[in-house]
Amino acid sequence: MKPRTKIVCTIGPSTWDPDVIKALVDRGMSVARINASFADADEIKRVTTLIREITDEVAIMLDLKGHKIRISDIGEDRTLKAGEVLVLNTRENEFGDIIVSYENLHLDIKPGAPIYIDDGKVRLKVEKIEGTRIFCVVENNSVLKRLKTVNTPGTKLSFDPLTEKDKKDIKAGIEVGVDFIAGSFIRDVNDVNAIKEMIKGTDIEIIAKIEDPLGVQNFDEILKNVYGIMVARGDLGVEMPFEVIPILQKEFIRRCREVAKPVIVATHMLESMVNNPSATRAEVSDVANAVLDNTDAIMTSAETSTGKYPIEAVETMSKTARVAEEYFLQLYKSRKLNDTFYLDYKLITEFNPEKNDEVAIRAITVVNSVKDAINSIDTGAILMYTRAGFTARIISKIPTNIPIYAYTPDPSKRRHLLMSRGIKPMFIPDNLINRQEMISYMIQDALEKHLIKRGDNVIVIISSYSSFGEKDSSAFEIRKII
User: Is residue 158 part of a domain?
Assistant: First the structure.
């Protein structure tokens, strides 16, 4: 059994083999991530084509590199001692300085500011700036390694929203038809709009990665303008005090849940499984707690891209998620859990500006009715017709283990719903002429696929304003399958 929580897997050398990808799908992968930090346009096209040839039940997310600053290839590792001076430079020079990839760092950084390299393993403080040279005092005994990332907590960098590489990668993603673009280091709505402008006219949706204090500060405005959020704990944990990351994670999940938008928890979830066949107890607890907080998706990074045990990592994630989901549901049913989730149509329309109050009220009415129904009768499944996926995303927030099969004729919408917890997207033809034909099709299809059985009570949902322009006061109905 696959968990209701969706699993996003980063695809890399460890998972290029078609048999490995099939194994990941079998164990719960719903979304394949291509990390553009380690892939060019040709690689984006190759991996997307590979996955599409294997399965049409996996969405593809292109994760942009963004303005990831790195040091140059310094060759051999260099041992640093606390108190010594290390000089960074934004230009090649005759001094043997460490070159950084952001050409304006010497203009943006100020004396006294911190600079962290390699996720904070190397900690520097800026002493002075001379031209393009940045003189730093090393604050801890450490080892400097080639091509490691550079973070500048508290310093606002003046780069444009998209790099030239980002633009090339987005064009490649559009060409091969990726389903999501994950924008790195999204600081405000301007960064979102730069991506929107490039994908205009496509079916691609945007996932905003929250990775620095500006993204946290502008979270609400960002959330209003994107399809979903990624809690990118790696850089976020370097840019901000690490002790606040668990609180931010919980808060972001809660706020996304309230407005029916998907949220992914990412980075270091099973990091030890890059080299080991089993996870640590702390890592398993981390995965379980994200699931208990009702995140839509959890993500692997190096575990499946370059790790030695990609299949085992996804199996571990899947098993952990299933157990956590069952525990949450037991608490909920026994009323030992005070689940504070509620639906406010004004909040939903505020954060889904493409919807009006009438649409939101109608969707919430359906959801509340479904919640009452599944608490009152033994329900085998929820079958729903959805065109845009909006009501389906709200339905996915109901605490239940009842399978939700969302039928839509649009292949892009089906793949987008693969990011939402508990939703199994299904195909329905676009030529059905009335509600009864749609209901009959869904029930017959579910029976043939053994998703439901004779004797089941099934909740059937179709929008009260269907695609045929009909008006019907019955938003959903309960069918006894005979």
Answer: no
Reply yes or no on whether 123 is catalytic.
no
197 and 324 share one domain: yes
Direct distance between the N- and C-terminal alpha carbons of the chain, in angstroms, rounded to an integer = 26
Tally of domains in the chain: 3
Catalytic site residue from 267, 304, 320, 408: 267
Those residues whose C-beta lies under 8 Å from the C-beta of residue 215, and which sit 6 or more positions away, are 185, 186, 187, 188, 208, 209, 222, 236
Active site residue 46: no
**234-248, 276-290, 338-352, 453-467, range with greatest mean pLDDT:** 276-290
279's tokens: 């996870």
The one catalytic residue in 6, 27, 68, 209 is 209
One domain for residues 136 and 279: no
* pTM of the predicted protein model: 0.92
Dihedral over Cα of 271, 276, 282, 283: its sign: positive
Distances from the Cα of 143 to the Cα of 83, 84, 236, angstroms? 14, 13, 22
pLDDT at 320: 98
Q: Give tens-digit pLDDT for 420-447.
A: 999 999 999 998 878 889 999 999 999 9
